[in-house]
Amino acid sequence: MFRSTRPARKLLTTLGIFVAAGALVAGCTSNQEPQNESAAPVNAGSSNDAPGKKVVIGFSGPQADHGWLAAINSTAQAEAKKYPDVELRVAEGTNDASLQISQIETFINDKVDAIVLLPTDGAALTEVARKAMDAGIPVINVDREFSSEFAARVTILGDNYGMGISAGTYACKLVGERHLTSPVIAEIAGTDSLPLTQDRSRGFADALRACGQSVSRRVAADFTVESGEAAASNLLQAAPKIDIIWNHDDDQGVGVKAAFDNANRHEFAFIGGAGSKNAMRWIQDGSMEATVLYPPTQAADGIRLARLLVQSKGLSDLVQVEVPRRIVLNAPVVTKANVDKYLPLGFES
């Protein structure tokens, strides 16, 4: 999937790590007798979700030309609607850095309380993000990092290297469970020039190396259905036998699976990436082994954090009283055993 130049440990998701969690309360000293240690602890309920002062959040996201990117925008807007104290001002989705810069300048001039931004280009948007921060408007940087630590109050990222680690670790598990000797492990990458693709491939190779395996065949696509089908077709023609295939992207995977079906090749375990609803339905019907999440909830998480920042709240499950500066979401493996849990987080390709 084309998620541009951002370089799936889930600290928070829309499943609700923030929702109604018990607040951590430090004990206090007094002249009173200590409580019986066997007594049940008393936990204060979190007030984070209780309505507070109104928060105006400006949101600028990508052009929805890909299932994952569309989900970034839709989940952010859906999350804002859950809070009566949040007013969300949504800029038109764009892949034009100049247009996005003007959108952020408008938010600054309008004196919004916070900005949630998935930049078209992190480096190109750094200066205007710093301008917002200098104006006292906290910026929540989503997915594609700025080139300065001073451009954002919070950075929320998926874990591309972690996706590779998760996929490779699961592949190693399959090798052991299926007693595969000299397995042929193939990889269908995304756009090779992107750091995110390089990180995913590096993680996959590192995880395989840990169990004495390596990638036998590798091709690259371009995060599109058409390129996925072409790359997978080339792979199948070159490799008469394959045991495991990891495809980096589930949108691209629509074409990949079409190539498998056209060639009537299904002898291998098919592992996907990103977590589309298509992939999860294939897992349910047995035509796909697993997929690795790259959460499309990052901007939705950004909305929640922006609200907490403006209302001077922290994360109720942390002792630290302020919102962290950097959050990297987990990249869990979705299988038939847990697909029902993750299906609500999936996106339509």
UniProtKB/TrEMBL annotation:
Pfam families: Peripla_BP_4. InterPro entries: Peripla_BP_I, SBP_2_dom. GO terms for molecular function: carbohydrate binding. One of its GO terms (cellular component) is cell envelope. PROSITE patterns: PROKAR_LIPOPROTEIN. Residues 57-312 form the Periplasmic binding protein domain. Keywords: Signal. Gene3D superfamilies: 3.40.50.2300. It is found in: Cell envelope. Residues 1-26 form the signal peptide. Belongs to the bacterial solute-binding protein 2 family. This is Sugar ABC transporter substrate-binding protein.
